[in-house]
């Protein structure tokens, strides 16, 4: 396992991070979830990402139980705040001081730890003054409940504003967690250059495009039983943007490239995002322990410029690059 610094900080993270969105507390039984976490630890992963909203707080509890007994100092545990939790009342979402302060306490209790290494704004809150949000994060850091602060799916302008306030308040904004894959490259034009300037790293989710880049979805063929595309608890909705014959057909053209590199399709997808120097880590999920071992093999893989060009040629115009998609996909009002 290779390690990288997270932003302009001294914190090192494993370049493959284990995440439990759409799995723990939802798709995967707790015993299997624990086996996946054990497989991650055995493979050298030290960085684990979750959120209070995943399975309405249950995912945090499952991860906390799975990591119980591990040396806390040897782990980097990340969680997030923004989306609705609990009974979803008027103050059960967003980035108000009230919600942040109550949410960090709940997350720490469920995770069974006194602090998280990284506390992240899961989206930008248009209804709370940014000054209020960043002051609350500063107080969370000063209370020792989080060591660093990050965000998720913020635009370049939002990153710049948040970074400036964090600096004024005496703490570091060191990361952004966007969607990023061979098929979804909307961060490359604006978010990545701005992040490099500010000393912010990317922690990317869905590097395998919710499973599409494994090549298991073949145009015109039946959906694999038990796959993300058949999940009615959120998975099928998330993957729908890629489930058309044009995208799936282009993905099949990646198979000979992966074979030539001695990689599986999933390994190629994870290795591809790791070629971006602004990346600190790529988040992988798993419904079976063996999936963890497969994806971890992408750590340290170097893809030649020639192979990167072949990937671009194979995917052609199905790649989404519009930088405006970051803000377009962000909530316009606080969710309830």
Structure notes:
The protein is an alpha/beta fold. The chain has a single domain, classed as TIM Barrel (Alpha-Beta Barrel), CATH 3.20.20.100. Helix content is 38%, strand content 13%. It contains 13 helices and ten strands. It has an eight-stranded parallel barrel, surrounded by six helices. The chain has a two-stranded antiparallel ribbon with strand order 1-2. It is globular. The model has no long low-confidence stretch (mean pLDDT 93).
Find the CATH superfamily.
NADP-dependent oxidoreductase domain
Integer average pLDDT: 93
The low-confidence runs, each spanning 5 or more residues with pLDDT under 50, are none
The separation of the N and C termini measures: 40 Å
CATH class: Alpha Beta
CATH topology: TIM Barrel
Classify the helix fraction into a percent range.
25-40%
Write out the strand line-up for the largest beta sheet, numbering strands in chain order.
3-4-5-6-7-8-9-10
Main sheet properties:
8 strands, parallel, barrel
Q: Report the strand count.
A: 10
Fraction in beta strands: 5-15%
- Number of structural domains: 1
Individual helix count: 13
Q: What's the CATH architecture name?
A: Alpha-Beta Barrel
Rough outline: globular
Rg from C-alpha positions? 19 Å
State the secondary-structure class.
alpha/beta
Helix/strand order = EEEHEHEHEHEHEHEHHHHEHHH
Q: How is the secondary structure organized here?
A:
Blueprint: E1 3-5, E2 12-14, E3 16-19, H1 30-42, E4 47-49, H2 58-67, E5 76-81, H3 97-111, E6 116-121, H4 130-142, E7 146-151, H5 156-169, E8 173-176, H6 191-198, E9 201-204, H7 235-239, H8 245-252, H9 255-261, H10 265-274, E10 279-284, H11 289-296, H12 305-315, H13 325-328
Parallel strand pairs: 3-4, 3-10, 4-5, 5-6, 6-7, 7-8, 8-9, 9-10
Antiparallel strand pairs: 1-2
């Amino acid at each position: 396992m290779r390690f990288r610094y997270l932003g302009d900080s001294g914190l090192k993270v494993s370049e493959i991070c284990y995440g439990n969105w759409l799995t723990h507390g939802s798709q995967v039984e707790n015993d299997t979830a624990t086996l996946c976490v054990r497989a991650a630890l055995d493979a050298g992963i030290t960085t684990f990402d979750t959120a209070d909203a995943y399975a309405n707080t249950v995912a945090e509890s499952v991860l906390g139980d799975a990591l119980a007994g591990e040396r806390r100092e040897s782990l980097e545990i990340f969680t997030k705040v923004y989306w609705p939790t609990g009974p979803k009342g008027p103050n059960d979402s967003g980035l108000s001081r009230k919600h942040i302060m109550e949410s960090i306490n709940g997350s720490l209790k469920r995770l069974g730890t006194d602090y998280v290494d990284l506390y992240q704004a899961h989206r930008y809150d248009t209804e709370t003054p940014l000054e209020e949000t960043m002051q609350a994060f500063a107080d969370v850091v000063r209370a020792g409940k989080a060591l660093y602060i990050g965000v998720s799916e913020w635009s370049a302008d939002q990153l710049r504003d948040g970074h400036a306030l964090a600096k004024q308040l005496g703490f570091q904004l060191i990361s952004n967690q966007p969607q990023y894959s061979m098929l979804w490259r909307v961060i490359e034009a604006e978010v990545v250059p701005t992040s490099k300037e500010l000393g912010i790293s990317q922690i990317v989710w869905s590097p395998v495009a919710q499973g599409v880049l494994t090549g298991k979805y073949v145009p015109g063929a039946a959906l694999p039983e038990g796959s993300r595309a058949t999940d009615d608890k959120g998975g099928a909705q998330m993957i729908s943007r890629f489930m058309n014959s044009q995208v799936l057909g282009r993905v099949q053209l990646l198979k000979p490239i992966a074979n030539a590199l001695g990689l599986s399709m999933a390994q190629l997808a994870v290795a591809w995002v790791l070629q971006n120097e602004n990346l600190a880590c790529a988040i992988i999920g798993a419904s079976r322990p063996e999936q963890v071992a497969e994806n971890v093999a992408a750590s340290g893989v170097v893809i030649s410029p020639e192979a990167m060009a072949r990937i671009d040629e194979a995917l052609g115009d199905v790649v989404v690059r519009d930088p405006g998609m970051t803000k377009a996909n962000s909530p316009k009002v606080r969710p309830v």
